[in-house]
Amino acid sequence: QVQLVESGGGLVQAGGSLRLSCAASGRTLSSAVMGWFRQAPGKEREAVARISWNAVYYADSVKGRFTISRDNAKNTVNLQMNSLKPEDTAVYYCNLDPGGYWGKGTLVTVSS
Length: 112
Known about the structure:
It is a single chain. The protein has strands at residues 3-7, 10-13, 18-25, 33-39, 46-51, 56-58, 66-71, 76-81, 90-97, 101-102, 106-111. It is mainly β. The model has no long low-confidence stretch (mean pLDDT 95).
């Protein structure tokens, strides 16, 4: 059974940085597409960044500020978030495809 556990969320001031991590168990990551999504209050869940074995995707709103990376040996995927803005405030979820697996999420709050 696949389990995804996020960590690293918290409260940070605008302009600050946070690093999110997602630890996967029950499946190796090497052939999977891993991603980070977020959902702000009253809004739909949106893709922030995704990474496969040969490609990376970023939402326009985070390009140049966020970096996604994966460590297949450790079965982890990370999201380095720099120059955070109040509009980045959301619950961030780790995702694994195929299979549509989700973590429970970690809250990121950016104060102005």
